[in-house]
Amino acid sequence: MATFLAANDLSPLWQADYSQKANDSSRPIILDGFYGDEHRHISVIFERVQRDAAQPNVFQVQGRTRYKKYITPFEGTITVEGLKPLKAYLDLDSVEEARARAYTATARFTLREDPTTDGAGTYQGTAAMDFYQLASGKLHLVQLMPDPVLPTGGGGLLFRGQWTSNRTGRRQAVAFANYSEAVLPDAMKDLYIGERGETLNPKYARLDWSEAWENDEWWAKPARPALSL
User: Fold this and answer.
1) CB 108 within 8 A of CB 136
2) How is residue 218 annotated by DSSP?
3) How many domains does the chain have?
4) Would you give the DSSP letter of residue 153?
């Protein structure tokens, strides 16, 4: 693992790619998931990721979260602790498919919200990245949505852990991913209703899940003070 990470920088894969677009809109790929017992919607964007010069398995990160329309900056680290081969269909041409090598990187993360914001806390937990390397050396996320067999559910990135309040020590479960359905708990299997599952269930609309499909460029706006939790 140490040899691979010294030769290959994973930081562009952790970071939001503004050159990729979601649903033909101007929205960069942003991680979506749930927060707390009510499973409210949360969005996370990693705006800057840089590999540590002395420790190639450690990545310094900066970004923002949006929860209940409150946008809060954070900074922290992602530390890769494992790397193993991944069996996955990569949807490449036959020559590239034969030469490409896929992997899953496992990591732990700590994201500390700006302590000057009201209600700030810290996100901690584990992360997974499914990616492949072409013969040219280029790295890409394995994005085959949906695919529950893959460690990340098919989106390429998945984070699970807890948020802890700086002020009260209160803890809340949290999970977010490129493919939000990969982290939805069983309690939210009725997120969509209708014969083809195309309509958002009203009870989840009130928990902010409609935001995941709004063309609201919140990442381009100044942060609002976080709400007190």
Assistant:
1) no
2) G
3) 1
4) T
Q: Which of 203-209's residues contact partners 24+ apart within 8 Å by CB, and which partners?
A: 204/39, 204/41, 207/38, 207/39, 207/40, 207/41, 208/40, 208/41, 208/67, 208/68, 208/69, 209/41
H helix count then E strand count, the chain: 4, 11
In a domain, 122, yes or no: yes
Residue 6 domain flag: yes
Pairing mode, strands 70-85 and 101-113: antiparallel
Is position 220 within any domain? no
Q: How far apart are CA 73 and CA 78, in angstroms?
A: 16
**pLDDT per residue as tens digits for the range 36-94:** 888 888 999 999 999 999 999 999 999 999 888 788 999 999 999 999 999 988 888 88
Number of CB atoms found within 10 A of residue 14's CB: 22
Lowest mean pLDDT among 29-33, 111-115, 174-178, 202-206: 202-206
Domain contains 118: yes
Identify the domain containing residue 198 by its residue range: 2-214
